[in-house]
Design a protein that fits this description.
Shape: elongated
Number of domains: 2
Distance between the termini: 33 Å
Organism: Phyllobacterium myrsinacearum
Radius of gyration: 31 Å
Helix content: 55-70%
Structural class: alpha+beta
Number of helices: 13
InterPro entries: DGC-Regulatory_Protein, GGDEF_dom, Nucleotide_cyclase, Rev_trsase/Diguanyl_cyclase
Pfam family, one: GGDEF
Domain GGDEF: 248-380
Strand order of the largest sheet: 2-3-1-6-7
Largest sheet: 5 strands, mixed
Keywords: Membrane, Transmembrane, Transmembrane helix
Number of strands: 7
Strand content: 5-15%
Length: 380
C-alpha cells in the first residue's frame, strides 16, 4: 500500500505540524488522508467565507468606524488569500506537486482570529444588534470549524478559541453586568466543541484503521500473508495502465509444488501448512521492490515480476526453483523436500488482461509438468 495517497503535502513547520498532528500511533497514510480533509471543497469553503464577509460588511455599514472598516478589510484580504491558496493546493495535489499546507493552516488561524476580533469590537460598541449578529455568526462558524477540521483536532480547538473566545473578554468589558455570564457560558461551549472535535477525530481514525484491516484481509492469504486471488487480480490490474501507456512489460509466473501431496499424506496438514509458509518466505526473499507474490489456493502460487525480459525471467525462475527445492525442516524435526514447476506469461506479449495472462501462465505450467516436473516453460 502507498503511504501517501491524498496528494496534499503534510505540513513542514514545527507549529503547523503540531497543530495538524492527529495523535500518536497514527499511520502515515491516515495522516495524509486527514490533511486532505482540511482542504475540503469549494462550496463548503464558500459558505463560511460569504457568511463572515457579509456580516462584517453589514456591521461596518451600520457602524462606519475605523475598527469595523479594518475588520471588513481583514476579512476580504484573508478570505481572498485563503481562496487563492486553496485553489493552488487543489491544482498542485492533482498534479502531484507540493501543496502550501503550512500557509493554508496559518491563514485558517488568521481567519478565526478575524472572526473573534469582530465579536470583540461589536460587543464593545454598545450596539447590541451588531453584537448579536457578530456572535451568532461566530457561533455558527465554530460548529463548522469543529465538523470540518476534526481531522486535526488541535487546529480545530485553536480556531474555536480564536473565533469565539474574544466574546468572553468583550462581555466582561462591555459594562453590562449580565454579560458576565459569558465568562462561564462561552468557555464551557468552547471546551465541549473542542472535546467533540477530538472525539470525532478518534472515531474517524478508528474507522479508517478498520477499513484498511478489512481491505488487507480481503486481499491477503491468511496462512502465508501473500496476496490472495482477489489481491493478485487487483495488483495486476494496477499495472495495466502503465503497460498500455508506455509498454512497461512485466511477467506472471504460475507455480505449483511438486511432491507437496506426499508431505501432506505422510506428515499431516499441519506440516503441509509449515511447508507452504516456508515456501512463501523463500519466494518473498527472491522478490524485488516492484514484484509481488500470491497464493491462490492449495499449493499454487503466482509471482508478478516487474520485468518482461525473457532471459532475466528464466534466470529468476531457475533461482526460485533452486531456493524452493532446498530442504525444509519441520517443527517436528523431520526434513522434507518439495520441487516447483512454473509457467511464465509475459505482458504485453501474451496478453493485456489479468485473466488472459493467468490463463496463459497456467497452460505453460502444465507444459512444464508434462516435460517432467521441476521445470519452467514460457507460454507459446
Amino acid at each position: 500500500m502507498r503511504e501517501e495517497i491524498s496528494g496534499f503535502s503534510v505540513p513542514r513547520w514545527r507549529l503547523t505540524r503540531w497543530l495538524a498532528d492527529a495523535g500518536s500511533n497514527v499511520p502515515g497514510y491516515i495522516r495524509s488522508e486527514l490533511i486532505a480533509s482540511l482542504f475540503g471543497t469549494l462550496p463548503i469553503f464558500a459558505g463560511g467565507v460569504i457568511n463572515t464577509i457579509l456580516v462584517s460588511a453589514f456591521i461596518a455599514y451600520r457602524i462606519p468606524r475605523p475598527e469595523f472598516i479594518f475588520w471588513l478589510g481583514c476579512e476580504l484580504l484573508i478570505c481572498s488569500m485563503r481562496l487563492v491558496v486553496l485553489l493552488i493546493s487543489h491544482r498542485n495535489a492533482k498534479a502531484g506537486k507540493a501543496t502550501p499546507t503550512d500557509i493554508y493552516i496559518l491563514l485558517a488561524l488568521a481567519w478565526s482570529g478575524a472572526v473573534g476580533y469582530g465579536c470583540f469590537i461589536s460587543m464593545m460598541s454598545g450596539d447590541w444588534v451588531a453584537a448579536t449578529l457578530a456572535c451568532l455568526s461566530a457561533g455558527a462558524m465554530v460548529g463548522g470549524i469543529c465538523f470540518r477540521n476534526f481531522g486535526a483536532p488541535r487546529l480545530a480547538s485553536v480556531m474555536i478559541i480564536l473565533s469565539l473566545g474574544p466574546a468572553c473578554l468583550g462581555g466582561a468589558m462591555s459594562g453590562e453586568p449580565i454579560l458576565y455570564v459569558t465568562l462561564l457560558q462561552i468557555p464551557l461551549y468552547l471546551i465541549s466543541m473542542a472535546m467533540a472535535s477530538h472525539k470525532l477525530n478518534a472515531m474517524l481514525i478508528a474507522t479508517k484503521l478498520a477499513e484498511r484491516e478489512n481491505e488487507r484481509r480481503a486481499n491477503e492469504d491468511a496462512l502465508t500473508g501473500l496476496l490472495n486471488r482477489t489481491g493478485l487480480l487487483a495488483h495486476i490490474n494496477d499495472r495495466l495502465p502503465a503497460l498500455q501507456r508506455d509498454q512497461t512489460g512485466f511477467a506472471v509466473l504460475y507455480l505449483d509444488l511438486d511432491g507437496f501431496k506426499l508431505v501432506n499424506d505422510q506428515y499431516g496438514h499441519a506440516s503441509g501448512d509449515e511447508v507452504l509458509f516456508e515456501v512463501s518466505r523463500r519466494i518473498l526473499s527472491n522478490l524485488g521492490p516492484d514484484d509481488a507474490a500470491a497464493r491462490i489456493g492449495g499449493d499454487e502460487f503466482v509471482i508478478v515480476k516487474a520485468s518482461g525480459d525473457e532471459q532475466e525471467l528464466t534466470a529468476f525462475a531457475a533461482s526460485i526453483s533452486e531456493n524452493i527445492g532446498a530442504r525444509i525442516r519441520l517443527n517436528a524435526g523431520s526434513c522434507v523436500e518439495v520441487g516447483s514447476s512454473m509457467g511464465i506469461a509475459i505482458a504485453p506479449r501474451h496478453g493485456h488482461a489479468a485473466g488472459v495472462l493467468l490463463d496463459k501462465a497456467d497452460r505453460a505450467l502444465y507444459q512444464a509438468k508434462a516435460a517432467g516436473k521441476k521445470r519452467y516453460a514460457i507460454a507459446a
